[in-house]
Amino acid sequence: MTTMAQTEPPLKRLFERLDFAPQPKRLELDLVHERWEAARAGAVAPRRSAISFAPEERGAAESLFVHRFEGPDGDGVLTEGVAAAAVLLGPYRIGDRLSEAGNRRGAVRLRRLFKEVRRTGQPVLAQYTSAERGRDRAIVEILVAPLSEDGSTIDSALTAISAHVLDGAPRRATRETADSGLALFALGASISAGEDVAQALGAELAPLEDREFEDGEYKIRPLENVRGRDCYIVFTLNGDHIASSADKLCKLLFFVGALKDAGAQRVTAVTPYLCFARKDRRTKPRDPVTTRYVAQLFEALGTDRVVCVDVHNIAAFQNAFRCETVHLDAQALFARHVLANIGDRPVAVVSPDLGGEKRAELFRLRLERMLKRPVAKAFMDKYRSEGHVVGDIFAGDVKDRTAIIIDDLIAGGGTVARTAAACRANGAAHVWVAATHGVFSEKAASALKNAPIDQLIITDSVRLQPSMAAALGDRLIVVSVAGLLAEAIRRLHANGSITQLLEDGP
């Protein structure tokens, strides 16, 4: 929950964003927060010893440091994490007090966060842009959470920090972008993705207020003039442990309505993952067709355009909406990865079910053009009895080839795990999986952990949970859709060609 609009002025001067219901953008901070919540277990705050990390989670462990509060003024004394503390506080040693830190500005920021944590007993997430002379600009994200040795008194604070270098991106939006009337917003857990899109556009995210009330309701509004402007909202709509798909959809619709009421000329919802899109037809009597209902909600609020990446059924998506729709796909991104890593090995493209056969065939033809050699094909299908999968059918040539299973999303992981096993059983030398949306339900980790998959390639359209990343380890490869979304926004704003973008990629 971003609450700058209701925060006291000293904190506003120190930070660009404050979340008192933390949703860290960086995986290592998200994992620290997840472990802190698990260790708390109903106490005022957890003990430091109750928070631990696996060897493959070293990045999270190395991002944190701990201060013990001492003296009447509660000055912090460093007890752990010299290297991480130095990122914020400069040269620092175990036993040094916060009041002695070399980076005075960093110490002031941390002291203010300590004060909030001790006052509320809750973790807080803060963000600011570092612009120190002689260094690249960076977005710095800080998570501070209380600790307690006796379970009742807050006596220490755990801090985790992450700095994301902006690679010399402009400090302000360029005059060309700012004067063109384009306004780019990002909501919730998609703020990090929105920043990547903004950087690719050479712009900055427009400010907004996202305020949650005690009863769970919220309001959301732009904090700059949008009258007559072309507005784009980046927000992926998968459900997670922070908010359900329905909650996210509702928030997006409220913001679309707020922008239209504020005089925006055009509002485009950029939803890399569109929720409720899999139920696109009736399979039983009186079944809902949720894809159409979602479309009607967008239209009722005055949405001018909806942009998605690899929806489950393109035809159903396009037919459900009366407003303009733009369907992007990640095939060019996956094909580039294959081209860079496959070498001269023979390849086969595999569809995990008959419904995805057209998607797989388009990808196979693209690979043939890029590799300039034949690419084989195969498919698998499952048959059910009384709602349960009782058998599989596999057809195609994968023997001694690298089998690339292509799909739009992975949820439970069972389908791709069975398809990978079938590819191995039919002689595949290697098995890769390329799926646009890594939705990953709770059971996905167990389904995929021991599956015979050499590479699992997904995009960052959906925020990856740290526990899933840890389960997949080095087999997991994430490609960014930020460039694709940015180029689509650029072309839509300038009335350019999306067809050519899909053919060539960003």
Annotate the secondary structure layout.
Elements: H1 9-14, E1 17-19, H2 27-40, H3 58-62, E2 64-70, E3 75-80, H4 82-89, H5 104-120, E4 124-130, E5 138-147, E6 156-165, H6 175-179, E7 182-186, H7 191-201, E8 208-212, E9 218-222, E10 230-234, H8 245-261, E11 266-271, H9 290-300, E12 305-309, H10 314-320, E13 324-328, H11 331-341, E14 347-351, H12 357-371, E15 376-385, E16 388-396, E17 402-410, H13 414-425, E18 430-438, H14 444-449, E19 455-459, H15 466-472, E20 476-479, H16 482-493, H17 498-504
Parallel strand pairs: 7-10, 10-11, 11-12, 12-13, 14-15, 14-17, 17-18, 18-19, 19-20
Antiparallel strand pairs: 1-4, 2-3, 2-6, 4-5, 5-6, 8-9, 15-16
InterPro entries: Pribosyltran_N, PRTase-like, PRTase_dom, Rib-P_diPkinase
Pfam family, one: Pribosyl_synth
Enzyme class: transferase
Number of domains: 3
Helix count equals 17
Instruction: Give average pLDDT, whole number.
Output: 87
Biggest sheet layout:
7 strands, mixed
Give helix % range: 25-40%
Report on this structure:
The chain is α/β, with parallel strands linked by helices and 506 residues long. It has 3 domains: 4-165, 2-Layer Sandwich (Beta-Lactamase); 175-330 and 484-504, Rossmann fold, CATH 3.40.50.2020; 338-480, Rossmann fold, CATH 3.40.50.2020. Helices cover 34% and strands 26% of the residues. The protein is built from 17 helices and 20 strands. The chain has helices at 9-14, 27-40, 58-62, 82-89, 104-120, 175-179, 191-201, 245-261, 290-300, 314-320, 331-341, 357-371, 414-425, 444-449, 466-472, 482-493, 498-504, and strands at 17-19, 64-70, 75-80, 124-130, 138-147, 156-165, 182-186, 208-212, 218-222, 230-234, 266-271, 305-309, 324-328, 347-351, 376-385, 388-396, 402-410, 430-438, 455-459, 476-479. The protein has a 7-stranded mixed beta sheet with strand order 16-15-14-17-18-19-20, sandwiched between helices. The chain has a 6-stranded antiparallel beta sheet with strand order 1-4-5-6-2-3, with helices on both faces. Helix 10 links the parallel strand 12 (305-309) and strand 13 (324-328). Helix 7 (191-201) crosses helix 16 (482-493) and helix 11 crosses helix 12 (357-371). It is globular and about 75 Å long. The two termini are 33 Å apart. Residues 183-302 form the Ribose-phosphate pyrophosphokinase N-terminal domain. GO terms for molecular function: ATP binding; kinase activity; magnesium ion binding; ribose phosphate diphosphokinase activity. It catalyses: D-ribose 5-phosphate + ATP = 5-phospho-alpha-D-ribose 1-diphosphate + AMP + H(+). Its EC number is 2.7.6.1. This is ribose-phosphate diphosphokinase.
